[in-house]
Amino acid sequence: MKNIALEPERQVLAALLKELRETHGITQEQLAESLLWRQTDVSKVERGARQMAYVELRHWVSALGVDMYELEMQFQERLRGLGISEPIPPGGRRSRRQKLR
After folding, report:
1. Of the chain's two ends, which shows fewer C-beta atoms within 10 Å, N or C?
2. Which has the closest alpha carbon to 87: 97, 98, 100?
């Protein structure tokens, strides 16, 4: 079952990862080969249908020649553009303090 509260963040990350791959001129097949994955797994990540562990994300961005800090900055910028400035906690509810900011 999907956690609906995480969907905007998951979709932003998926789109960013796809854009970075395309910007670096790497095909899904080439990235999959570098990661020792199947091309379908790369596609699933880029559609937001498959989540990655942090270490998998590190390998993904490394294969693209991107720094994790650069990825994080771009991710945060896009979230701010959507009005999401803080991580959504498990359960999808922000604390009262978070809502007041």
Report:
1. N
2. 98
pLDDT tens digit sequence for 30-39:
999 999 999 9
Rounded to whole angstroms, the Cα distance separating 76 from 13 reads 10
Against a cut of 0.85, is the pTM above it?
no
- Radius of gyration from C-alpha coordinates of the chain: 15
Distances (CA, A) of 30 to 16, 26, 37, 62: 18, 6, 10, 13
> DSSP letters of 14-77?
HHHHHHHHHHTT--HHHHHHHHT--HHHHHHHHHTSS---HHHHHHHHHHHT--HHHHHHHHHH
| Whole-Å CA distances, 40 to 29, 32, 50, 85, 95 | 9, 8, 10, 32, 38
- Region 10-16: mean pLDDT is 95
